[in-house]
UniProtKB/TrEMBL annotation:
<keyword id="KW-0805">Transcription regulation</keyword>
<keyword id="KW-1133">Transmembrane helix</keyword>
<comment type="similarity">
    <text>Belongs to the S1FA transcription factor family.</text>
</comment>
<keyword id="KW-0539">Nucleus</keyword>
<dbReference type="GO" id="GO:0005634">
    <property type="term" value="C:nucleus"/>
</dbReference>
<dbReference type="GO" id="GO:0003677">
    <property type="term" value="F:DNA binding"/>
</dbReference>
<feature type="transmembrane region" description="Helical">
    <location>
        <begin position="27"/>
        <end position="51"/>
    </location>
</feature>
<keyword id="KW-0804">Transcription</keyword>
<keyword id="KW-0812">Transmembrane</keyword>
<comment type="function">
    <text>DNA-binding protein that specifically recognizes a negative element (S1F) within the RPS1 promoter.</text>
</comment>
<feature type="compositionally biased region" description="Basic residues">
    <location>
        <begin position="57"/>
        <end position="72"/>
    </location>
</feature>
<keyword id="KW-0238">DNA-binding</keyword>
<keyword id="KW-0472">Membrane</keyword>
<dbReference type="GO" id="GO:0006355">
    <property type="term" value="P:regulation of DNA-templated transcription"/>
</dbReference>
<feature type="region of interest" description="Disordered">
    <location>
        <begin position="57"/>
        <end position="82"/>
    </location>
</feature>
<keyword id="KW-0678">Repressor</keyword>
<dbReference type="InterPro" id="IPR006779">
    <property type="entry name" value="S1FA_DNA-bd"/>
</dbReference>
Length: 82
């Protein structure tokens, strides 16, 4: 009966000598996520460059009359009507 529960050492030796075949699953996940992030960044850069070339420049805000008057007074030119 004691012979039934003995562990055979050759099976443990065989488990130690088993070589990993193929790629590690963790490495595959890392490569897939890395490639998705890289594709996202390259796509964003390409869209940014395209937008810079094709879109017209941004319009400036109109300067208020109050600010115009203030600038003229700083320069020493009196505002018309004063």
């Amino acid at each position: 009966m004691a012979d039934d529960f003995e562990f055979s050492t050759p099976s443990f030796d065989r488990m130690k000598n088993v070589e990993a075949k193929g790629l590690n699953p963790g490495l595959i996940v890392l490569l897939v996520i890395g490639s998705i992030v890289l594709a996202f960044l390259i796509g964003n850069y390409a869209l940014y460059v395209y937008a810079q070339k094709t879109l017209p420049p941004k319009k400036k805000k109109p300067v208020s009359k109050k600010k115009m008057k203030r600038e003229r007074l700083k320069q020493g030119v009196s505002a018309p009507g004063e």
